Amino acid sequence: MARRGVRVFPTGRANLAILIRCRNWLPLAAALMMALSACSTPRGLVPVETPAERTWQDDGAPETLVTAVERSIGYYERLPEDTVFHYGALRYSPREMIASLQLFLRIWGTSADEAERNARIAESFEVFESIARDGDNLFTGYYEPVVPGSHLPAGPLDTPLLARPASMVEVDLSLFGDDLPRRRLVGRLEDGRLRPFYSRQEIHEHKAVDDIATPIAYVDKVDLFFLQIQGSGVVEFPDGERIKVNFNGSNGHPYRSIGAVLVRRDIMPREAVTMQSIRDYLAQHPDAVLPVLYENPSYTFFRVVEDGPLGNISVPLTPERSIALDHRLFPKGGLAYVDLTVPTTDDPAATRPFRRFMVVQDTGGAIRGHGRADIFFGQGDAAEAVAGRLKHPGRLWLLVARKSVLHQSMADADAASVSAQGIQ
After folding, report:
1. What is the pLDDT of residue 413?
2. What are phi and psi of 409, to 5 degrees?
């Protein structure tokens, strides 16, 4: 029974007609229809039945795809056999992930044409589409910047690019009980207690880690900020020496977009926010640089690497083939496919189609949720021109071999191995 004084509204699609009969109820009816429609639209990781004629076009260089896939295979080969990768309710071992990628490479390399390749993929692979919670997928880009550096503070190159402090502590809460969230905390020990690690402002302004973190080089403060966002880069010294630096942990504070800060302060409209426009604003307003940068308390530490840049599975990233996704939701190293448009290098207003297979080989502090992806575009000015302006919608799929096909393929491989050993 309805409570006195409370009006009961009819709900459900069948009852919407009752509302529409009354003109005063039209706004409510429209809102209800939109809500019901939104609830019926799939979100998250959605299984997809792909017809044989589905076109998996690929506009990238074939050899780069092979390189990226082989690097993921190398990652799986290093893992314990009991590691588990989830695709919805399906579970895959590292050996199965290797076999899945090897099957894809065979299809990729032996199909007579695109139609045959499409049909074999439809027959052999499970396909899942990743759809953002609000239905609006967002693709951004990143690249490997080259920044000027110095071995000692010199002029504008006065900000230390820091190695990870040995005393910084990471805690995986899930190791302390199944009832705890799957979350990592980063902190420091003080009087026997774990405290939050220092924020960007504490590190830069209050010199909080000067005694525990070693400078790798000295760079411009704005260059350091964007180097931290990219997660890797090259430091070039005045004598021409270059070193590669790569992500080696963060302070555990949440990532906050300074672009969003500039929008919130009515400094620039949302649609105008790009890496280039943020850089231009900071260059024109030097007094605002530190206050704006401090709005993002997250801080990245680095290490020197010989090869790179390295993603979160410790393999070199392949330009326009490696993609960063939320590591909590997506299987590391797995096969993906994207369909979107990206900016061109020469015309800020122009775009080009970008449809290709990619490999999940990285993650990022701002890359959270389904339908959110970051594409690696390589090194240099051309890569920066594309990555810095990419803020586009698009579609994202994951592919993994069907269990039945996979197990037959693995059995055939085992039989061939035993036969080869017998011949020897």
Report:
1. 66
2. -65, -40
